[in-house]
Amino acid sequence: MKVVNIIDELNSLAYHGRGIIIGKSADGKKAVTAYFIMGRSENSRNRVFVAEGDAMRTKAYDESKMIDPHLIIYYPVRVLGNKTIVTNGDQTDTIYDLMDKQMTFEQALRTREFEDDKPNFTPRISGIIRLEKDGMNYAMSILKSAEGDDSSCERFTYAYSNPIAGRAKFIHTYNGDGNPLPSFEGEPKTLELPDVDIDTLTDMIWKNLNQDNKVSLFVRYIDIASGESETRIVNKNV
């Protein structure tokens, strides 16, 4: 298994698209998650992250320039009891609603497919963190078109029990720029999670996302024992 430095990974591509990072802090005491969005079009870049209680939503920075809120405005983060849900689309609500009805993370996502943004068919990436009495576990998912064929959906779920301290998994929507955009391939990447506080990690991620394409960043540290959390949000549009 290749363990990658966060700075090196973020600088490896000019366009990751949207990305989710989930892991356990180096001291083993906190669940760590980050979600960022990047954009190429004016519509995609015209966004900010806004905290709403323990949830987080996207919002148009300039309402007059919003062309199509479809696929742009959604809740990337919601909390259901001991579970924190992080996704790149309105499947956050699907997971929240169906898990609240006792369905599993994977079952909820079986009701969804990749985005309908032909010709890219952007993958839907999702993550969930569960805090338990004996620690934390998490899972990640990607729903993607099969070789760009919109009639076929490939579904992959990766579950991580008792994750190693100081490690995180990283999944993102695209493997770089292009037309159409190439979808992410393979398992989530393994990142070294440095022994730093939330402000340092936030700064590290934000500074190393491509300057032209980055839009917004969310980072949260969750104390595994108490469930208490700290959150940071950075927006390019301020």
Could you characterize what this model shows?
The structure is a single chain. The protein has one domain: Glutamine Phosphoribosylpyrophosphate, subunit 1, domain 1, CATH 3.60.20.20. 14% of the residues lie in helices and 42% in strands. The protein has helices at 6-10, 42-45, 91-99, 105-109, 198-208, and strands at 3-5, 18-24, 30-38, 47-52, 55-60, 77-80, 83-87, 124-132, 135-146, 149-161, 167-172, 189-192, 214-223, 229-235. The strands form three sheets. A seven-stranded mixed β-sheet has the order 1-12-11-2-3-13-14. A five-stranded antiparallel β-sheet has the order 6-7-8-9-10. Strand 13 (214-223) and strand 14 form a beta hairpin. The termini are far apart.
Summarize the structure.
By secondary structure, the protein is mostly beta strands.
Highlighted features:
five-stranded antiparallel β-sheet; seven-stranded mixed β-sheet; mainly beta; 14% helix; 238 residues; 14 strands; Glutamine Phosphoribosylpyrophosphate, subunit 1, domain 1
Q: How many β strands by DSSP?
A: 14
> What do we call the CATH topology?
Glutamine Phosphoribosylpyrophosphate, subunit 1, domain 1
Report on the biggest sheet.
7 strands, mixed
User: How much is the radius of gyration in Å?
Assistant: 17 Å
Second CATH tier, the architecture: 4-Layer Sandwich
> If strands are numbered along the chain, what order do they take across the biggest sheet?
1-12-11-2-3-13-14
What are the secondary-structure elements, in order, as H or E? EHEEHEEEEHHEEEEEHEE
> Which structural class should the secondary elements be placed in?
mainly beta
Specify the CATH class: Alpha Beta
Please tally the helical runs, counting DSSP H or I stretches of 4 or more residues.
Answer: 5
Mean pLDDT across the residues is 96
- Would you identify the regions where 5 or more consecutive residues have pLDDT less than 50? none
The CATH homologous superfamily: Inosine monophosphate cyclohydrolase-like
Strand content: 35-45%
